[in-house]
Amino acid sequence: MRVLVLGGDGFCGWPTTLYLSDRGHDITVVDNLSRRKIDVDLEVGSLTPIRSIGERIRAWHEVSGKEIGFVNLDLATEYDRLAAVLAGIRPDAIVHFAEQRAAPYSMRTGKTKRYTVDNNVRATHNLLTALVETGTGAALVHLGTMGVYGYGWSGSAPIPEGYLTVKVPTPDGELEREILHPANPGSVYHMTKTLDQLMFAFYAKNDGLRITDLHQGIVWGTQTPQTSQDERLINRFDYDGDYGTVLNRFLMQAAVGHPLTVHGTGGQTRAFIHIRDTVRCIEIALANPPQDSSRVRVLNQMTETHRLLDLAKMVADAMGAEIAYLPNPRREAEENELIVRNDQFLALGLHPTTLSEGLLEEGREVAARYAGRADVTKIVARSVWRAGMETSGDLVAELPAQP
Amino acid sequence: MRVLVLGGDGFCGWPTTLYLSDRGHDITVVDNLSRRKIDVDLEVGSLTPIRSIGERIRAWHEVSGKEIGFVNLDLATEYDRLAAVLAGIRPDAIVHFAEQRAAPYSMRTGKTKRYTVDNNVRATHNLLTALVETGTGAALVHLGTMGVYGYGWSGSAPIPEGYLTVKVPTPDGELEREILHPANPGSVYHMTKTLDQLMFAFYAKNDGLRITDLHQGIVWGTQTPQTSQDERLINRFDYDGDYGTVLNRFLMQAAVGHPLTVHGTGGQTRAFIHIRDTVRCIEIALANPPQDSSRVRVLNQMTETHRLLDLAKMVADAMGAEIAYLPNPRREAEENELIVRNDQFLALGLHPTTLSEGLLEEGREVAARYAGRADVTKIVARSVWRAGMETSGDLVAELPAQP
Q1: Residues of A with Cβ-Cβ distance to B79 under 8 angstroms
Q2: According to the 3-state scheme, what is the secondary structure of chain A?
Q3: Relative to the CA of A329, which of A120, B250, B282, B378 has its CA 20 to 30 Å away?
């Protein structure tokens, strides 16, 4: 298949690009390199020394013999170029990662709130319009988030895959209806993914676009069998308070000798998936577009759920770290239960890579190898959900010398 | 109250501005005059000879002695100026009409789809962000649409005011939950109002903004007691296939001797409200902001429902016109039932202005007075929901000479 990977230079996009290329697909990355530019503004960088997209692609060609195309293009603002790329490449499928994806960054300032909405909504809507205008019949696979459902809404009921069956009282008795699961986003970032859902629903209904929306859990891990073939192919590892994902942050903190940062009680339960499963799920989704194009196919892309404090304790016990309880900069419930269905992915052949000591240790090792690149002032999360919320100062003045 | 009227130069915005000014409020209109500029692109104009916003405001001062402020500002692109206006004026309340509001225009081309989303989403989100950033405690009243609910979804059940009580099955029995009514928009325009809803919900929950969302029916009528005080205050009257609303179009067509254009079977049932009630509803909403600021107050701003064919027959019978059945450029159900609750507005003191011969005749008279300004080539609706859908040619080559 000819596949466009929009946002193919990012944390999930790059490993997906290599995985799909390795599996024989003809890949073109479309990316405006915004993730790298945001790091410039935040004065932080990937813990791992990621190479430029050009060097990455050249290295992959050396290692695998395969070509990957690259177009530097801003989906939100360069509509005409996007339409030209679709008309020129005529992709069979498109994977859409090209959105600002950090909740804390999306809540950081008025400017980042606006950037997140302006960028994400326009990127998605430009893409949908361009598919219609150019008559591109490509199947679209979008990376959404478990966060569209919010937490604790349905009590003991498992979160279904996108659609919820409810009963509506009417004068003629109860009506059973399958509805898009009510949206309950916890940040401006998550909100943009709920907006995406409604745009997908409309363009599926009106134009018959074939769309799959993957509601992904928190991704952890760094390397895949492809990214570890050459150091120039290494994936990014975010450890900072805005972009770092929670389990990877715990592993990094344990590796560099920093207390594990639990914001709030740690009673928050979240869904997780390893980066190796992310790339497999994308391939499964590409191979199984919706039969009925009038309705978006929704899959829950996660393999397990954990309480954050349980994860912290597990890492602390295994690796000898301390836990620091910090003020929570988010407005969220202190605790929640979370039960999630992922029956469709399991039925389509996903064999979950769940938490194991070996994988945790691999993550710690990656972090330890590059510990000297860490900036200790970037570790505590300080983007607050409302002005005036309390945050913590740095927990340590400098990191211990690495062995 | 100091009130900002965003979009205060438009079809609903201008009469609201005058009504609120007449009632003693201190009004500033914020408008980028986009509605007039779209008419330039569409090569059409209001049937009534509306004056420039400057002349309108001067005329109102002559007639009433009252001052109205005006700021020419694009909410979607001039965030810093918006924030400065909020900080400078410190409004008690804001009425937000400032969105592209025609479904056919929103479906006309890829460019107008994108304009509608880019403009409406950014205008609303910039406003929300600016309220938070400037600490403006103003109550916000937004003009939404009945179209967020879609048609025919809930069978014989009346459409409630914004929130629907449903039963969710769980392993521990059924859970009763009040949810935002599932969105089922029929056009890109309507879709943007469903996106607005989710943004309002988030900013109410996270930031405690006090927001009222008015789900308005199709507005008909032209003049209010304020706009009819001087010809320079006259409200706009859209008769073209993109911006004209259905009942006003029938009245105009009857007045100028054009067949009444029924697109499709006419079995579509829609909700209606007269422009005189629109302005009253806004005042009622301003006087009754939500008590619980964590949840958006939703009111259904409509007074009656009618099948389009029934309206056409009523106008045809009363005024001696013919009915022409044309291909429907929209993708929608041929027929639907529609029962809508508006209990809250009734309880808050609205006395509905329903369809009457007198008001219909008033509309016909306004149209007849300015019939010479009509362009017969703009009457048939030709913006199609999908490429290739059939449309009709012009029904008449020129309009009969007016008496």
Answers
A1: 114
A2: CEEEEECCCCCCHHHHHHHHHHCCCEEEEEECCHHHHHHHHHCCCCCCCCCCHHHHHHHHHHHHCCCEEEEECCCCCCHHHHHHHHHHHCCCEEEECCCCCCHHHHCCCHHHHHHHHHHHHHHHHHHHHHHHHHCCCCEEEEEEEHHHCCCCCCCCCCECCCEEEEEEEECCEEEEEEEECCCCCCCHHHHHHHHHHHHHHHHHHHHCCCEEEEEECEEECCCCCCHHHCHHHCCCCCCCCCCCCHHHHHHHHHHHCCCEEEECCCCCEEEEEEHHHHHHHHHHHHHCCCCCCCCCEEEEECCEEEEHHHHHHHHHHHHCCCEEEECCCCCCCCCCCCCECCHHHHHCCCCCCCCCHHHHHHHHHHHHHCHHHCCHHHCCCCCCCCCCCCCCCCCCCCCCCCC
A3: A120
